């Protein structure tokens, strides 16, 4: 089993996944009511001959065994919908009034069914067992995950992975970084007891509202003054109920709130601090406070080793430029419970749909030519309506993929019907001629045009390119999933040293903040980011754009005569 085979089968099952997702979207069901959804999943599994178990009324676990015994991997997809009225005007809009797949669970379930088809076809090529967990009631508490764990025979899993699509991330991007990705939660309930009285004689009463207000205010410095800044948390009081009349001092006040945090061990400290603050503040106002902390979901914390393995596989499948880092999400997911059974990995997958923008651009007469670093992304852009694509190889400057221009261009040309423009490492007529021979209809050149009179980068930047040698190109950020090709300098040396030492991404990021501006605007080519392709050493002189284009055209004509390649 290899990555190319997996990619081929994924492409073959793309339409199946799309149609299945739309079918789920049109027939959403609330938590623990996913009867029709579950039956459809079972029907698909039975058609393929895949065995399954029913650990919960609306939960299913498919079991695919490889050719020989080995490790066991669990893959989870949630299948329930939300009590939301759909307003989207699409052919596959929800047919169930007041219920909608608004959180991507329709896509998760469809992805897992497509995965089942692929793994079933490949079962003779891998060792071990894969358990596909179609889980109900992710949106409900107590969670469906607990039900699946109780009856799903998951104790033998060596790892359990899950995915969540995010529309705020571009299609083709994936985040599998280690550490906390979704927050833990807890509910806060505080009852303040005072003594009622007349509003005109407050000295005869104990005002529960005043004490409650003081508690709310005193809770706010808890995060900034008592917690380690490496352990982010949020304390929110969302409701306050008190009083019976405008001239009556309230005898009781009742407030509720929520806690969000990423270190599962933090709940003890939070509870102790909240209880101390509430009780002591209330006492200062001659009142009493009763505090109840109700733990909710634990945090989703990606295992470091699983993250490392997943990043390597994702880079091989989609290119290193597909890997991204995302902000921590203060939302919760009951996928966290599976960590009680095995190390977990929660992958966040870009689902930002460019189609709506494509339509607007096309309506305005705009030509859309995205840059791609893989065949899969090129096909996606073609389906979305792109007029052409730029196939950019790893030789290019700035943010890069892993595939070379020589290898990438012909594969993209064979995969799409729209024109393909080659980019990456092209510096003269020889490179242009080679690109045409690979099937490209044009070329995109960056580094060579930086060294032109019309380009407004600092002269130091231009001179750095002119002086560059063939061995001066370096790639930073491979480990954190943000590979960038630059010319080596003091900043790059320090970055690579820290990267090799395994320092956190946040520390690496501090080195690069504003680094491009330093080089481009300020001319600091020692501490700035001098982005350049591997062909930088082929930029020998500063000339006008007209002079450069004339030179490139003449060089190309001498090699191919121009006929049949460009007009």
Structural class: alpha/beta
Total number of helical segments?
Answer: 19
* CATH-assigned homologous superfamily of the largest domain: Zn peptidases
Number of strands: 22
What separation lies between the terminal Cα atoms?
A: 45 Å
Taken together, the total number of domains comes to 3
Largest β sheet strand count, sense and barrel closure: 7 strands, mixed
**What characteristic shape results from the CA principal axes?**
globular
Low-confidence stretches: none
What proportion of the residues form beta strands (DSSP E)?
A: 15-25%
CATH class of the largest domain: Alpha Beta
Could you walk me through the main structural features you see in this protein, from its secondary elements to its overall organization?
With 567 residues, the chain is α/β, with parallel strands linked by helices. The protein has 3 domains: 3-180 and 299-352, Zn peptidases (Aminopeptidase, 3-Layer(aba) Sandwich), CATH 3.40.630.10; 184-295, Alpha-Beta Plaits, CATH 3.30.70; 364-567, Aldolase class I (TIM Barrel), CATH 3.20.20.70. Helix content is 37%, strand content 22%. It has a 7-stranded mixed sheet. A 4-stranded antiparallel sheet has the order 10-12-8-13. A hairpin with a 2-residue loop joins strand 1 (52-56) and strand 2 (59-65).
